[in-house]
Amino acid sequence: MLKKLLLTSLFAMVTLGFFVGFVSYQKEIREALSQSINTPSLEEEPPLVEKPTEKKTAVPRIIGLPEEEARKLLEEAGLIPSAVTEHTDQVEKGHVFYQRPMEGTEMFEGQEVIYTVSAGPFGQADSEEEEEDKEILMPSLLGKTQREGENILRELGLRVRVRKEYSADVAAGIVMEQEPSINAKLQPSDEVTLWVSLGAKPEEIKHQVPRVVGKTRAEAERLLKNAGYEVSVTEKEDADVNIGKVISQSPGGGTEVSVKGRVQITIGKKKTAAPETPSEGPGEEEPDPGDAKDPSVETPVEPPSVETPVEPPSVGEPEEPVETGNE
Fold first, then answer.
1. How many Å apart are CA 95 and CA 119, to the nearest integer?
2. What are the helix (H) ranges across 194-279?
3. pLDDT tens digits, one per residue of 292-317
4. Lowest mean per-residue pLDDT among 121-130, 156-165, 200-209
């Protein structure tokens, strides 16, 4: 019974509290509504808003133009250009492909025209920015061929310019100078100039005549003709060891000439034996003029045992030729 009485009392207290709160809330509402609301008088004039200039202009067509031209055209019309970029693979990068308002629309001068500029295919701008930030150290190309130098520079993304000059010290086709110098810092698409040798000037070129003395005729002719010379051949009697070999040449081996011309070579050949005069008897032999002066020194031809080589010949007696008799 006591428990029931306590519950009833609690319920009554809760109900009373709720009622008191509701009444207080309603009272506050009425007080708020009863207060006058401060509203601006209708007789007060609104603040003045600065109007754009009254002069109007027609919006030019800028679609398809490069951004710089589009901006310049809008400024000339008295309008304010406002550009946004957007990736697209349908329009060349840097060109306008949308504008608002459209061409022909009349606007007050000083108003804004928004246009969209192509940023190229998606991802292209990022890659180009990375390339612009990338530095390239200029390599050494001295001593390389022209083709090697050009290939190296193009692989690095650099442009190549080639100049050619004569040089007596550097072989033709070899890089002898470069600009910029080694280890210079470059950006992609920078230009590099290579100076390539044309070799010595024609009037400065000297050729050494091959040395062919002591070689066989076939070897000598082959060497000279392969070197670009013409060959003239003569023969001359010489010792047996030089038969068939070059015993002299003109110009001499090692001589420097400006023009490859004709080389004269002389080939050794076997000595020709002098023909023996037939003997028809002592009575028919023609007397030697020297014998007439000094008959006592006469040396008979036959028999050989009669010859006296120990005695020196007399002053008036001529010497007998070596080529005859012994060969």
1. 8
2. 217-226
3. 444 444 444 454 444 444 444 443 34
4. 121-130
Residues linked to residue 302 through DSSP beta bridges, in sequence order:
none
Token digits for 54?
């009254």
Question: What are the CA-CA distances from residue 217 to residues 193, 228, 263, 326 (Å)?
Answer: 51, 17, 13, 29
d(CA 210, CA 256): 10
CB atoms within 10 A of CB 79: 21
Distances 263 to 223, 247, 266 between C-alpha atoms, Å: 11, 13, 10
- Return all residues near 251 (Cβ < 8 A) that are at least 6 apart: 209, 257, 263
- Is residue 96 within 8 Å of 61, Cβ to Cβ? no
Quick: pLDDT tens for 3-48.
777 777 777 777 877 777 667 766 766 665 555 444 444 444 555 4
CA distance 119 to 129: 12
Question: Where is pLDDT greater, at 200 or 196?
Answer: 196
Name the more confident of 327 and 80. Answer: 80
CA gap 64, 118 in Å, rounded:
10
Of the candidates 269, 283, 200, the one whose C-alpha atom is nearest the C-alpha of residue 235 is: 269
Alpha carbon 277 to chain centroid, angstroms: 81
What is the Cα–Cα distance from 32 to 315, expressed in whole angstroms?
Answer: 173
Q: Is 65 within 8 Å of 96 (Cβ atoms)?
A: yes
The per-residue pLDDT for range 54-104, each reduced to its tens digit, is: 688 999 999 999 999 999 999 998 999 999 888 888 888 999 999 999 999
Sole residue written with tokens 């100078």:
177
Nearest-CA neighbor of 259 among 201, 198, 224, 208?
208
The full DSSP string for 291-309 is: HHH-GGG---SSSGGG--T
Pair 157, 136: CB distance under 8 Å: yes
Q: What's the rounded Cα separation, in Å, for the pair 222 and 289?
A: 53
